[in-house]
Amino acid sequence: MTDSSFRSGRPPSSAHFPGVQPDNASRREFLRRTGALSIAASATPWALSLAAMGEAAAATAGDYKALVCIFLYGGNDYANTLVAYDQPTYNMYNSLRSNIAIGRDLLASTVLAPAIALPNGRQYALAPTLAPLLPIFNTGALSIALNVGTLVQPTTKAQYNARSVPLPPKLFSHNDQSSYWQASAPEGASSGWGGRMGDLLAGGNGNATFTCVSVAGNAVYLSGNQMSQYQVASSGPVAVAGIKSAMFGSAACSTALNGLMMNTRTQLLENSYAAVSRRALTANDELSSALAGANVATTFPAGNSLADQLKLVAKMISVSSTLGAKRQVFFVSMGGFDNHDGLGGAGGTHALLLAGVANAMSAFYQATKDLGVSQQVTTFTASDFGRTLNSNSSGSDHGWGGVQFVMGDAVKGKSFIGAAPTLANDGPDDVGQGRLVPTTGVDQFGATLANWFGVSPSDQISVLPNLKNYSTRNLGFMG
């Protein structure tokens, strides 16, 4: 399998706008689809970040909570993120990827001591460059999900081989599996489970615009059936340059542009677009004003794009009361994890990527502590898929189950979530080349977070449609 078999593991572009036919699309459908035009600063100064459309469900929130999704595009390598440490399992790990394995002697300082030991003497260590996460784990604010991935229903290796149960479509495809993680549907999905939670809980916010916020371009995770994601750059909201300052040196031109974008029109689609523009420009002013009073004193690492995104999230959380927000879902991302070659061991490309993740997450957790909201903010990682245990030249190939982190003071930390997979060539969890069939489904993982967030059990199936296929829906890792 080569990378040319699938689309690139890079974050998707935010500039895709599906065509809408006026004769067969309702006004609401037009407004929802126009959400794809919300453009981040890196794409253009015309930042038409969108507010929520339509009425959200009547759920209300009496306190503040935020969920922060960190998506690692490209498929994060599970075996060099959380490394087998007990001698028998390490030996198997090393034998199957000796050219990219991390030396066991380098793992001694990051060995994890969970509150409840794993059975059969199993032990894990964090990759050395993930060391900034170790104290968070040790203080009980970090848990690690073992072998979690996209599923339609609980699936065994035998069922996979016999194709006797439904499987996620287009397994091992970057775009489709990142979409399935975010939306429970392959590429082309119209809504994701973060946005569907926003549909239910935005009614408790004073301003629904700031319910679903992306600092990483367009992400289906944040699109709801009514909600549209509000997009910002890591520097904050992006003004329309021609309105913020004189266009071509002419105040009259700026006034004309403002009118073109905002004035009421007689034509249905033009008027709908103007309504979107008005909401976006109003939200820009509101957020800019609120952020002017943000006071995040925590030091974030420089030269780290993920840290820049999370710093903006911390600033928005710090002014959530000013924005009237009680429930917020954030999305940030980092690319570069499609390491077919150059993955390396303790000092390779993957290790450097993990260092960026760990430093950014550590700073963000400290920021929530400094702001006094660490009990109210839960951060989790996600990725297209895990990768193969068997090395592929100097890297690894597309896989399935992977490892994810959940962080925050509401997490029942210092623990592992789910069952440790058997690392063995053609073992009970291996569907080929060390691709793990997941033993924990994304829907279970997401439902546990949704339950903490305030989504009722009866509503969780509408948020995560595959949840109906599971008898165990709450994994219990949230307080």
Summarize the structure.
The chain has 479 residues and is an alpha/beta fold.
Describe this structure in words.
- Helix 6 packs across helix 14 (457-463).
- The chain has helices spanning 27-34, 87-96, 134-138, 157-162, 174-183, 193-201, 241-244, 251-262, 268-291, 305-318, 320-323, 349-371, 442-453, 457-463, and strands spanning 65-72, 82-84, 124-126, 142-149, 212-214, 230-231, 327-334, 377-383, 387-392, 395-398, 402-407, 415-417, 440-441.
- Mean pLDDT is 87; it is low at 1-61.
- The protein contains 14 helices and 13 strands.
- A hairpin with a 2-residue loop joins strand 9 (387-392) and strand 10 (395-398).
The outline comes out as: globular
The structural domain count equals 1
The helix fraction, in percent, is 25-40%
> How large is the count of helical segments?
14
Structural class: alpha/beta
Low-confidence stretches: 1-61
SSE topology:
Blueprint: H1 27-34, E1 65-72, E2 82-84, H2 87-96, E3 124-126, H3 134-138, E4 142-149, H4 157-162, H5 174-183, H6 193-201, E5 212-214, E6 230-231, H7 241-244, H8 251-262, H9 268-291, H10 305-318, H11 320-323, E7 327-334, H12 349-371, E8 377-383, E9 387-392, E10 395-398, E11 402-407, E12 415-417, E13 440-441, H13 442-453, H14 457-463
Parallel strand pairs: 1-7, 1-8, 4-12, 4-13, 5-6, 5-7
Antiparallel strand pairs: 2-3, 4-11, 8-11, 9-10
What labels would you give this structure?
479 residues, alpha/beta, nine-stranded mixed sheet, two-stranded antiparallel sheet, 13 strands, 13% strand
